[in-house]
Amino acid sequence: MRLNEEAIAPAGRSRWSRLIPVAIVVYIISFMDRTNISFAFSGMGHDLHISSAEQGLAGGIFFIGYLVLQIPGGHLAERWSAKKFVGIMILVWGVLAVASGLVRNYAGLLVVRFLLGVAEGGIWPAILVLISHWFPARERARAYGFWMMNIAISSIVTAPLSGWILTWGSWRTLFFIEGAFPFLVAAPLWWWLVADRPSQAAWVSDDERRYIETSLARDNAGAPRFSGYRDVLRSSMVWRLIVVYFFVQVGFYGLSLWLPHVVKTTIGASILVVGAVTAIPYLFAIVGLWLNARSADRSGRYSVHVAASLALGAVALVVSVALGHYPALSILLVSLAMTGALAYDGPFWASASRAVPAALAGGAMGLINALGNLGGFAGPYLGGYLQDVSGGSFLSTAVVLAAALLLAAAVALTLRKHADKPVSSRRPAAEVPTGQHPAGAVVPRLRNS
């Protein structure tokens, strides 16, 4: 049966322009409440009398709590409701984000940061599952890449906003103001605009609904066969994805949480200027995320796009710090480093979604995200420790973070057999249909079986 592309196009534009932007906004606020501690480090260190290593531990302990709901969150999103699960967690994390500004000692800070990680932990796999219910495999790298622009956009918003708040308020004020956003913005948008599946959304046309459901059925027919989560745990493919994700998070969060410090050291400016300049690398990353995801969907070589992106990030990071005495060049290079450390995301999660059947995808991607995000604990702490022992220099930290990215790139290349699309399913350019959503992604034509 050939579907009517004229009917598909409007609904196709709706799912790209309605679902993913809402998911972006929710995760922008989530990411803001997790990383704004990087701007609070200075005042917090003074008020709570904690060292750089202890500050790094406070930034990283979030990811220990982040483990708790990863697999349950993905499982509940698949078997129950991504909409309801994420909606509840938005409210819980909002309470804890505000509570971060109420802590009176280091122990209290660690407890609140840990619980904030628990509250936010299941949201990432739940949204991955939600996207997998709306976008067939051939569109998924772009869909994930589009959504994962939230990390870059959040950093663009967080950096100048946090810098501005700190020009007139304290680090406690920072947590209070940014902790209010889940209640004022994220929760209302999520509850009003999101649907778990096309069958539950009145704004999806019949043709579009059939297109999505038929395409997903075909994708699932070719998925690996697992009898249950025990087989997932035994899969070398899944464990290699975990290794890649772990070392990426070491590199990314080690760079991200210490980036304001690196920028301040490089340009020696006020906190307001530092906040503005810190946003620049994330502007580069937005472009890189979309271009790499679009290219990966076209070529089907997801593992190569992951590896190339991470290699760029590793090399640019070390060179940027080594050339720190040239501020403009250093900022350009650290922008390329951040681009590489983020642009892998769309192809990576597209390949992860191919590794297991749909019924187990939520839990499996939760497992990958849970264990992989332990790197988000290691990176910030390692960065603080290496700066303590090196007298404040970031060069040794940059070398270690770059090595982590390169190791992730090497392991990603071993995934080619199962993570990439089979050669027979890669359609030549002449066969690519012309229907596109507003951001430029192809809306495929469904062929007769």
Explained architecture:
With 449 residues, the chain is mostly helical. The chain has one domain: Growth Hormone, Chain: A (Up-down Bundle). Mean pLDDT is 81; it is low at 1-11 and 427-449. It has 23 helices and no strands. α14 crosses α20 (358-372), α16 (280-299) runs parallel beside α18 (327-343) and α21 (374-389) runs antiparallel to α22 (395-412). The protein has helices at residues 5-35, 37-48, 52-60, 62-65, 70-99, 106-121, 123-132, 137-147, 149-168, 171-179, 181-193, 206-221, 229-234, 236-267, 271-278, 280-299, 302-322, 327-343, 345-354, 358-372, 374-389, 395-412, 416-419. The chain is 78% helix and 0% strand.
Features:
449 residues; mainly alpha; disordered C terminus; Growth Hormone, Chain: A
Please outline what is shown here:
The protein has 23 helices and no strands. The protein has 449 residues and is mainly α.
**Helix tally?**
23
Radius of gyration: 21 Å
CATH architecture: Up-down Bundle
Strand content: under 5%
Largest sheet: none
Class per helix and strand makeup: mainly alpha
CATH fold description? Growth Hormone, Chain: A
Q: Which ranges are low-confidence, i.e. pLDDT below 50, for 5 or more consecutive residues? A: 1-11, 427-449
Ends apart, CA distance between termini: 8 Å
